[in-house]
């Protein structure tokens, strides 16, 4: 064989990222290719450090709750709820029952809009932009209802340590039910356009497979795990808020398709059926909504005083749209936490990209990467390590560097 022929057969490497049209957020992929087939895949996150935990360590929990809303623009209330639950466990706060139901309702509306946003992204990655626009148009109804209930379309600001900041009064119920009925009527249409379309079936069936065994070994969570047949859901396994009072079962693909293959198609099935499940959960909450207070303590000054008496550590958990989100908090008798660590859902799911991608075609990379609904801005954390030395930059340091950079640019 000639040297030229050997060179043509040699596997070659393709870098994709950290910014690329196929990626919605920065992440660096490296693929070892043989022709169009992926032999090996690797990735390097860490491109979107924002230092939110650093900022939180200099605030009290009442302020941090609003910061947690900004960890993610899609599932902000999931982070707020998980953080608030951790602080409430340390302080042994009993959240009013009505507040727990309101928390569950807004969390399910967030799941509806998040899954519909993901469905539109998936359609786009498949080159089906008509379906992208349809999905994102119908998603607006959930966003409008969230705005009606909380006053905001993004960063709802409704969670408070010990309860919620707004009540869902009975005069809002007709608008909520109207929104739920809108999505109930759309169910058959969405299932038909996604699951009966020949192109989607050909592109997604048996593509990006994550086996049940790999899903367990890699500790995947949420729809990514359930699409591989893993029967897990924090709302069912460790009930919180109002979920313990409700009838909920984890959504698995075999319930609708008769089998589980763990491929991209099954991830579509799980998320579409979870939209229907969220509609049912909100209706259950409205039917059982108890009367009463919505906060443990109305006076913020009294809550702040209680923080100074709090000692201990706790984990707050929530089943976010992408899966389980964890917030670890430790309080040592100060107004601000001694430690606060966030583990977003995507952190648990990113490693599943490797078995999903290896052996597949280069053209399938965008839809496989998108199929776990990754959120890198949720996941990336700050760490300053230079020549083996660890350090933390203060606000003054960052301001000084910012001013110096501006002056260099203007010189």
UniProtKB/TrEMBL annotation:
Q: Which cofactor does it need?
A: Fe cation; Ni(2+)
- The reply to whether Metal-binding figures as a keyword in the UniProt entry is yes
The entry marks the following residues as binding Mg(2+), namely 53, 342
User: What Pfam families does its record include?
Assistant: Complex1_49kDa, NiFeSe_Hases
Residues recorded as binding Fe cation, renumbered to this chain, are 75, 378
- Which of this chain's residues are annotated to bind Ni(2+)? 72, 75, 375
Q: Which UniProt keywords apply?
A: Iron, Magnesium, Metal-binding, Nickel, Oxidoreductase
Q: Which residue range or ranges hold the NADH-quinone oxidoreductase subunit D domain?
A: 126-381
List the Gene Ontology MF annotations in alphabetical order: NAD binding; nickel cation binding; oxidoreductase activity, acting on NAD(P)H; quinone binding
Please state what the protein is called: NADH dehydrogenase
